[in-house]
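Sanity check. The docking grid for iron/sulfur cluster depends on where the pocket ends up, so I'm generating a full predicted complex first rather than guessing from homology. Inputs follow.
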Amino acid sequence: MTVNRRNLLKGAASAAVAASAGFPLSSAAAAVRDGRPAYRRLAEAGLLDERIETIAAQYDECRLCPHECGVDRNGRDTGLCGASARVRVFSHTPHFGEEIPLVGRRGSGTIFFSHCNLRCVFCQNWPIAHAGRGRLISDRELADMMIDLQRRGCHNINLVTPTHVLPNIVRAVGLAMRRGLRLPLVYNTSGYERVEMIRLLDGIVDIYLPDLKFMDGAQSERFAMERAGDYPAMAQASILEMHRQVGNLVTDDRGIALRGLMIRHLVMPNRVAGTREFVAWVAENLPRDTYLNIMPQWRVEHRAFEYEDIARGLYVSEFLEAMDWAREAGLTHFDERALAAEEVYRRRLAS
Ligand code: SF4
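Predicted complex below; grid placement will be based on this.
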């Protein structure tokens, strides 16, 4: 099912309920003028602790993501993601390979979480996401990592694959905030989210960085976990909610991201990712100047070589047709690296 604004009316009604329950519906412009990260404003309104408790309670019967395993993760049980209630982290470091508005001069403060609730067959981080490499740490140590990234000058805390460890993240943010954390949070997700959980992040996250990987459930079922046939509907609904909360990308006078939505879409061989449908959906449901990173960096990774239609590199023509489709759809705000790649490829084709 394609999700659009009309069939999200029900979701909007739930958001109104959330607002009446004390969850602020954010104004992006006011938030940016304010200059503080969202979670600090929520704390000052006296609402952060209650929200942390609500999110943390999810481990009792885990329905953090669309798999809705219903397991008690406080004990020995794990669900499809393979994660327990104790967070496992592979690394925390300033990262210079992310989108330029996140990287700035001093890097994006990435924290790579182990395990994943989507696990694509072509995952470029498979030792971390599939094999669960990493170290078990406490929420206090996670807070230490956030403070360390801030001390090293990073512009944000970039939570890579956060969905299945959200309770640990919000508890750590609460601890780190009391020790002076003031960087915006980047919610860097595969897009396989429950919109109900994204609503709970209203007033905590400033920058959403979701993928929209597939537009056809048959492809997500084939190339991600087999129970992820609802990926397109889940990701689309969540992205609309993310945009409702934070709006379009806003940067400071140095071009560094402060708040807003940035969408990633990896172009795949043989049009498997549904790129034409992706740009059409964005054009129909979001502002035309939504920040888009249409990515050419496809690689045959992990088990991708087992699938004939994706077991090859991306043709230059496949990336260029994606950029053409995006412009034909009226979209205007593209990632600088994608634009640079496009220019190089077009020159190469012309020579
Ligand atoms: S986060 Fe993990 S345990 Fe929870 S619903 Fe998703 S896959 Fe299942």
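Relevant for the grid: The pocket of iron/sulfur cluster is lined by residues 62-65, 67-69, 71, 79-81, 83, 117, 164 (CB under 6 Å).
Also worth noting: The first helix runs from residue 9 to 20.
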